[in-house]
UniProtKB/TrEMBL annotation:
Signal peptide: none annotated. SUPFAM superfamilies: DNase I-like. Gene3D superfamilies: Endonuclease/exonuclease/phosphatase. This is Reverse transcriptase domain-containing protein. Residues 193-322 form the Reverse transcriptase domain. It comes from Rotaria socialis. It holds the Pfam family RVT_1. InterPro entries: Endo/exonu/phosph_ase_sf, RT_dom.
């Protein structure tokens, strides 16, 4: 039994196997009874009677088909009639193994409609990999950016010594071949769009990133490019400190009767939408030396990956946006 987060419920004690009973609190309180009734069940329909309320829904897999199961269906419907329960039937089959309608609901006190998912549930790992690869190959295609853009098309700013020899940056292509796994954001059975891609990078690549980050962070500190208010992804900077300073600013303004307006923004899939040219252009405008820019550019470009699900691997495809 799945309940949407935020809905208030109270679990009702029930010792019957494969039966779950909860009271749902909304505008009105009603009882929800989830049932799985295989042929081997050890209880009778009458055992559910004392769980019924004035407003209730009993639903699930009754393992009874109205038109095909004769005596079994008669016993179930006789009990439902005795309890003043109305049947709510879906408009299509609910069994994955046959065309039988064995999942339905009985209601008392209000009306409901049953929605049946008619899409395909993919269980084969190879097919799941291919479907997910189709989605993420399109997802990681380069975005269409309106040009000219200030990050890439503004006049160049020369911060480096023009006589300095800029070293060439090279990363082996094998280091940029990424294995990607998918984590479901909420439900284990979901579309690829409801998953979170996790890149498992090459070990040598990760060592190289650590070495580069040490030098790059030192450069940012020496040039004062990171404001103290930036607490994300920084050592010895805590989000709690940033939050306390933010609250202090608000309280200070309110104590002086000043108007306060706050806007919180969360950019969807921001990390996975990173624009390579825009990133390099913005860093160049901040005065990052060309030797660092060359490494970052090589690090971002010409990457590819494959998806792995339960040991099955998809085809390789290019990653044209998003951080590694």
């Amino acid at each position: 039994m799945l309940m949407k987060e935020g809905i208030s419920i109270i679990r009702v004690p029930c010792k019957l196997p494969n039966v779950c009973v909860v009271d749902v609190k909304g505008e009105d309180v009603f009882r929800l009874i989830g049932v799985y009734a295989p042929d081997s069940k050890t209880w009778l329909w009458d055992d559910l009677s004392h769980f019924l309320s004035k407003k209730c829904i009993i639903y699930g897999d009754f393992n009874v088909n109205t038109m095909q199961d004769g005596k079994k269906a008669e016993i179930l419907f006789q009990w439902a009639d005795d309890q003043f329960l109305a049947q709510a039937l879906p408009n299509s089959s609910t069994s994955l193994r046959s065309n039988r309608v064995i999942d339905d609901a009985f209601i008392r006190g209000f009306n409901i409609d049953i929605q049946v998912y008619n899409g395909q549930i993919v269980k084969e790992s190879d097919l799941m990999c291919n479907i997910a690869a189709d989605y993420y190959e399109e997802f990681f295609n380069a975005s269409n950016i309106v040009r000219p853009h200030p990050y890439t098309d503004s006049p160049a700013i020369e911060y480096d010594n023009i006589n300095e020899v800029i070293p060439e940056s090279v990363l082996p292509s094998a280091w940029k071949d990424t294995r990607m796994i998918l984590l479901a954001k909420k439900y284990s059975i979901c579309l690829p769009s409801l998953t979170r891609p996790i890149s498992l990078l090459d070990s040598f690549q990760k060592i190289g990133e650590k070495l580069f980050l040490t030098r790059f962070r030192d450069l940012l500190y020496r040039r004062g490019l990171l404001p103290d208010s930036q607490s994300g992804f920084r050592e010895r900077f805590r989000l709690q400190t940033r939050l306390l300073l933010f609250l202090e600013d608000i309280y200070s303004l309110m104590s002086n009767s000043a108007p306060v307006c706050t806007m919180f923004v969360d950019f969807r899939a921001a990390f996975d939408q990173l624009w390579f040219l825009g990133c390099i252009g913005k860093l160049r405008n901040l005065g990052i030396p060309s030797s660092f820019l060359n490494w970052i550019e090589v690090w971002l470009n010409n990457r590819c990956c494959f998806l792995e699900i339960n040991g099955s691997k998809s085809r390789r495809f290019s990653i044209e946006k998003g951080g590694p």
